[in-house]
Amino acid sequence: MVVRMVPRGERTLKQQDVIPMLRQEFAQIAGARAFAAPYPMVQGARGEPLQFVLTGPNLNELGQHAQALQRKLAALPQLGRIDTDLQLDLPQLVFSPDRLRIADAGLTTQDVALAINMLTGGVDIAKFNDEPGDGQRYDVRVKAVEGSFTQPADLSKIYLRNKAGEMVRLDSVASFRETLGPAVVGRFDLQYATTFFATPTLPLAEAVELVKATAAEMLPTGYQVRMIGQAEEFGKTQKYMSFTFLLAMTLLYMVLASQFNSFLQPAIVMLAQPLAIVGGVAALWASGQTLNIYSMIGLVLLIGLVAKNSILLVDLTNQRRGEGLKVDAALRDACPTRMRPVLMTSMTVILALAPAALGFGAGSETNQPLAVAVVGGMISSTLLTLVVVPAVYSLLEGWREKRRG
Questions:
Q1: Residue 335 to residue 337: CA distance in whole angstroms
Q2: Contact 35, 23 (CB under 8 A)
Q3: Full-prediction pTM beyond 0.85?
Q4: I want to staple 260 with a disulfide (CB 3.0 to 4.6 A). Which of 94, 254, 265, 378 is the partner?
Q5: HSE (CB half, 13 Å, CA atoms) of 355?
């Protein structure tokens, strides 16, 4: 069942607030397996953020380990309700043909199988065109009237005609027995598998580590847990964002080195980057946001945004030194001059992202982590850059002047 919430302006609750409320209501329904989950991003899939599969070589043993793992994880309230698609106790009817009796009756096993399949499930025997030229074509299926087969004993109603034209009752050439079996035999990487679904209350990365640690403690050799869905993509995203972050830092250093014609001064300018990252992560923690794909993008944006403050200070200081001033004198002249442009450009970014950082407007769930990371990074880098960058510039360039002197 898909429930669509009213527009954001007409309600005070978020989707993240409604899901826990529904879980509590569903938990009070005895005998029901009901759970609430976010709407999936991929149509036809399930929307829980934490999804993983348990794989192994034996289906029955897999079911036992899956139940044990489910009970273990269900005892951890921070993971929420754990659901699995494994069902090994579905009532089934096993058909066992007696090949000797079938041959004596003048039939073949194919005749028996076709009769059962046609009457119970139906067989497509032809195609039907509604009207010429309209492109609509329908299958013509032959099967028994609905409700004819509701009990195993109803299969005794089936009679087959042999080659001699005689009618042969089905239960005289075959037998049926009731048993229990799997509803669906799931596979993952050519092994038997069952899928688990959960909506944890803690960050996804912590939930993944918790599941892996729990599985490592109780699973024997040959059985393992593999993350899928958002959990798997989050692991890939961490690697991609780490590479992107490193590439951005490298390209920034190369551009600054060509601009300042120096290998040392770009490092001074790039001191703003770690100061910004610290502020961005601190802002995420203080606001209760998580480190997700959107906040990671915000941290990458900070690499380019915060460098401008240092560039303004270092560039004017170099100009003053070119006019004949010493290092400290050049800094005392450049820093007050550049203070207002630095504050104005930083405030422009901070004020522009303030509505998104405060969670206003539709889609704030995705915009807010990015905006919070950028705003926090801009505040910390702006305040600390005005102190740290001039101090480091004075130490390094003063040391270089002494060596030249």
A1: 5
A2: yes
A3: no
A4: 265
A5: 6
